[in-house]
Amino acid sequence: MTQELVKSALSKVMYPGFTKDIVAFGFVKEINIHDNDVSFTIDITSSAPEVAQQIKDEAMQELKNIGAEKVIINMKTPAMPRESSSKGKNIAPQVKNFLMISSGKGGVGKSTTSVNIAIALAMSGKKVGLLDADIYGPNIPRMLGLEGVKPEVNGNKVLPLKAYGIEVMSMGSLMEEGQSLIWRGAMIMKAIEQFLRDILWSELDVLVIDMPPGTGDAQLTLAQSVPVTVGLTVTTPQMVALDDSRRSLDMFKKLNIPIAGIVENMSGFIAPDTGVEYDIFGKGTSEPMAKEFKTEVIAQIPIEPAIKIGGDEGKPIVYNAPTSESAKRYMQAAQTVWGVIERVNEGGGVDNEAIQPTTPPGVSACSTKK
Ligand SMILES: Nc1ncnc2c1ncn2[C@@H]1O[C@H](COP(=O)(O)OP(=O)(O)OP(=O)(O)O)[C@@H](O)[C@H]1O
Ligand SMILES: [Mg+2]
Q1: Separation of 107 CA from ligand 2 center, angstroms?
Q2: Would residue 91 count as lying in a domain?
Q3: Selection from 189, 230, 207 nearest residue 85 by Cα
Q4: Which pTM does this prediction carry?
Q5: pLDDT, tens digit (0-9, with 9 covering 90-100), for 268-310
Q6: Total count of domains within the chain
Q7: What is 262-297 written as a DSSP string?
Q8: CA-CA-CA-CA torsion for 40, 46, 48, 51, nearest 10 degrees?
Q9: Which atom of ligand 1 is nearest to the CA of 309?
Q10: Which of 16, 73, 196, 272 has its CA 20 to 30 A from that of 3?
Q11: CATH, residue 70
Q12: Residue 52 sits in which domain range?
C-alpha cells in the first residue's frame, strides 16, 4: 500500500453536492500506512454532520476496494451546535435575543448597567426591551423616570411601558407603590413566565433582563423558559464581591449560557471637578476571574456621581451625558455584547463554552465549590 494508491482511491470520494473530490479540496491529511493498514484525517470542520458521515462511509468503501485491511479515519467534523439554556424552548418567540444581566451579590450596579446597556443598544439602532426581573427589589421604574406610571392592560396581556427608546416592564409598575411581596419558589416561576409570555413585547432584537442578585429560582426559570443568548456579570472590584461573582459566572456555565463578559463597576473614581481618576476599591481585580472563565472584562465603569444621580432622577447617563467617559464605556460595552450575540447566533459561539451539556440545569448545580 502506498500514499499514491490511498490518495487515488480517496480522490474517488466526491464532496456531496460538488464535482470536486475530497483530495482535490485538500481535506485529506496525515496519511499513515503500515503494510495494509491505513490511517488518515479528513478535516471538514465547516460542514453538516450528515455530510461528514457520507464522506467517511465512502472513503472507507474506497479503501476496502483497494485491499486496505485496518482503516482508521480521524474525522474532524464541525462542533456540535450549542444547546440553548432552554433546550430550544422560547415562551417569548417575538424576541430574537435574550441578554441576562446577573451578579453574585446585591448593590453592585446590575440595574444601572442593565439600563445603560439597554439604552446604548437602542441608540445604536436595535429594537430593545428591558425586563426588570428583580421581583424582590424592582428599581428600574425609578431609574427610567417611570415611577407611578401604570401600564395599559389589553385583555389578559399587558403593554410594556416606553422610555428612552426602549420597551420596559417591571414588577414595580404592576404593584402599588411601597407594596412588597414575599415570593415563594412557585410564585417566582410564575412571575418570570408571565413577564415573558403575557407582556406584549414588540418584535425585539434583544430583551435585556435585569436579574435579582444571586443564583436562584428566578435565574433557573428564566434560563429554562427562553434560550438565553448570552449572560453578562456585573461585579465591583473588591475581593468579597469577586467571590460572589464567580458563583454567577459558574451559574452561566451550568445553565449553558455563553458568557458575554464582565462589567467591573465602581472601578476607580473620576473626580467631577478635575476629571482625575482615583483608585478606590481597586481596579482591574476582576481580570484574573475573566481569564479563569475564558471571558473578558468588557468595561470598567468608574464611580461617577452623575451615574448615581442619573439613576435616582430617572435620567440614565448614556442618554443624558453621552459624551461623558462612563457613557462612552457603556456604549463600547454594548457594542462588545452585541458582537458576542452575533457570534453566538452564527454558531461560532464563544471560547468560554467549557460548558457541560450533559449536566441538567438545576438549582443545586449552581453552587460553586469554594
Ligand atoms: N458607577 C457608579 N457610580 C456611582 N454610582 C453608582 C454606580 N453604579 C451604581 N451606582 C449607584 O449604586 C446604587 C446601586 O446600584 P444598582 O441599583 O444599579 O445596583 P444593583 O446591583 O441593581 O442592586 P440590587 O441588587 O439592589 O438590585 C444605585 O444608587 C446606583 O445609582
Ligand atoms: Mg437592581
Answers
A1: 7
A2: no
A3: 230
A4: 0.78
A5: 998 888 888 888 888 889 999 999 999 999 999 999 999 999 9
A6: 2
A7: EEEEEEEEE-TTT--EE-SS-SSTTHHHHHHTT--E
A8: -40
A9: 31
A10: 16
A11: 3.30.300.130
A12: 3-76
